[in-house]
Amino acid sequence: MFKDLFGKAMLDFITDNNPENLITETNISEADEMDVSYLFRSFQDMPKIEKKALQLAKGKVLDIGCGAGSHALYLQEQNFDVLGIDISANAIETCKLRNLKNVRQIDLLDLPTDEKFDTIYLLMNGTGIFGKLKNLDQYLTKLKELLNENGQILIDSSDIIYMFDEDEDGGKWIPMYGDYYGELTFNISYKNEHEEPFNWLYLDYNTLQNACIAQNLKCELILEGEHFDYLARITK
To answer: Which residues, in sequence order, are CB contacts of 149 under 8 Å at separation 6+?
Structure first.
């Protein structure tokens, strides 16, 4: 059962209800603490990839997986018409408490395709919500349906090949838990509660680009970060 612990941490923070650090762990990495205040960062405190993405906004905007609403709030302050969506009820309540005007608790795949957008954001490893590589085509199809003719999808991710050990010849030792090395299983804990494990996809740029080409979409590399991360723009 979905306990919405990530959202609970956000709501505790905004309501000053004794927030604690989130504990995240994956099948290839040890437990790590995350200060929930990071989800409430200002534009000035965002990584350069997020700043660049937000500076490229145009027209009507959709922020997918809006979380605490930091990206959408910045765009709202810049007078953009922006809709934030998230599957987390607590995240949506947090956004409302932060005065984000237009938010909705809904899964991306359930969003009506008669709603069209000029800019669609999937940030903070936006490919994560795809879960598995096999779901990539389904999500790209949905995103294409939501996009206005001259619109853009701005999405970021990381190539996590660097996390695997090298052999003497420079090859990588990759234990395959699924169909692709970027398919991870995430575990989240908060205040001694444990979320059900969930799938999360890190996607290298070439794989994303090839999937876009197969869907008659153009994919271009906009910016590379310092930790094997990148920002891509997808257009029709």
So the answer is: 236
What distance in Å separates the CA atoms of residue 139 and residue 224, rounded to the nearest whole number?
23
What is the DSSP annotation of 19-74? ---EEEEETTEEEEEE-GGGGG--GGGS-HHHHHHHHT--SSEEEET-TT-HHHHH
Contacts of 91 (CB under 8 A, 6+ apart): 4, 6, 7, 10, 11, 66, 67, 68, 69
Q: Return the bridge partners of 188, or none.
A: 24
The pLDDT score that the predictor gives to residue 54 is: 98
CA 51 to chain centre: 15
Q: Structure tokens of 115?
A: 């709603």
Task: Return the pLDDT at 1.
Answer: 78
What is the average pLDDT value for the chain, to the nearest integer? 93
Q: Is the pTM of this model over 0.85?
A: yes
Distance CA 100, CA 76 (A): 8
Beta sheet of 82-86, edge-to-edge order? 103-105, 82-86, 61-64, 117-122, 147-158, 229-235, 218-224
Both structure tokens of 78: 């810049």
Alpha-carbon distance of 110 to 45, in angstroms, equals: 32
